[in-house]
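New here. Your pick:
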Amino acid sequence: MIRLFTLALILCFTASISFAGHVDTYGIGSKGTSMGGAMTAATDDAFSVHYNPAAMSRIKKRTFAIGSHFVDPSLKMDHFNVDETSAFPISDLAGSDIKDKSPLLIVPHMAYVHPLNEKMTLGIAFYVPYGLDLKWDTDTTANPAAMNTFHSWYMREVITPSFSYKVNDKLSLGFGISIGKTKAGVERVRYVPDFMKSAAAWQTAGYTAVQAAGAAAAYTELDGAQYKTETEDDFNYSFNIGLLYDVNEKLSFGVTYRSKSDTKMDGNTDVTPDMAIWTNQNVDASVEIDTPDQLSFGVQYKPIPKWSISADLTRTWWGAVKSYTVAFEDPFMATSGLSAGADEEHFERNWKDTWTYRIGTEYKLNKMIDLRAGYYYDPTVVPNDTFDVLWPDSDKHVFSGGLGLNFEKVSVDFVLQYIRISTVNINGESENLNDSYTRPGVHVGEVDAKASGSILGYGVTVSYKF
């Protein structure tokens, strides 16, 4: 068993782990995903390690599970327009029907639960509680939003050893520690207004002919360059605490608390292609982006033994992410007479705390076939004044359905998921978008945009009971 778990763990870590939308994996394990994630009181498979570690007490046989969730995003921006004001003539930037170019994204998951006796159960799971990976066209003629971001990613992978204790026939308690690794990064195209590439414009601003020629040459060289920041940490942790109370055979209640993880990532920021005029094109960088606390309340009711209905209410404290700063070890992108280089890059976020409402149901058609369905509403955490392409988000309606096939020792669970993303309209109020097209003291860019989309997800999980 140890060899099997080790091999599966290697396969999971070497898989392409990616996501779409805001930092959310949309479910862990096909059964839980198909029931809309309403599993705090309903979970009874190996992924109770995540949903509610206390529920591991329901598992009576050693169980190993492995699978993957596949995500196909379809996101777009329409009427993307940058109105610019300056002392010099500027051509407005505009683009419509801008669609993401993200590949099929893969989210693996794996778990093993081992009952020690009637009261104590051990478990361990690998999964990705948070993640994002989005790609867009780098051609700024078709996609001027690339000057804000054309590729962004954030992912936290965890291994969670857990323990549950059955206090009595009704009450169980659980605890787990999530040992994680986090990676984050962004790529964008450098925006340079046309007039900054004109020697005549610099002379009009008071530069000498020699200075103006040098400035125009420097910004002409910089125009269209691609900036890339990639960071990761070595180790972070959080913990899960769970409680499960089975009132009777029909009614159960559950509570799970997941703590935040303090995350400091190190890496580098660089620019391509190499340039002759600019210096410090590759510098060390660091940033802290923590994941939030989360508290879930759940209830499960069985009107008849074959049919269960579950509901969850989850509070996530995204409001803890007010802002973050990418700090550079050396001044980034300096040049004589024009720029001393940047010491940092600051991002305002002001994300909002959210309540997520989930409902799920399962009907056991017979000993072999289980039918499942779920829905949840996930409100956006991103206010309009900090919306950007790096962390896009809007209200989401998530619909799911699934099928479970049960054999003597093996069960196979399938899930199909559709996520409808509400349209968000930006009318010049986004500071983060505006800043991408603003040069202090020179000109101001004001961005209008409309963003919307959908995500199709599907997955399979195979479980084996020893």
Q: What stands out?
A: Residues 1-21 have pLDDT under 50 and may be disordered. The longest helix spans residues 209-222.
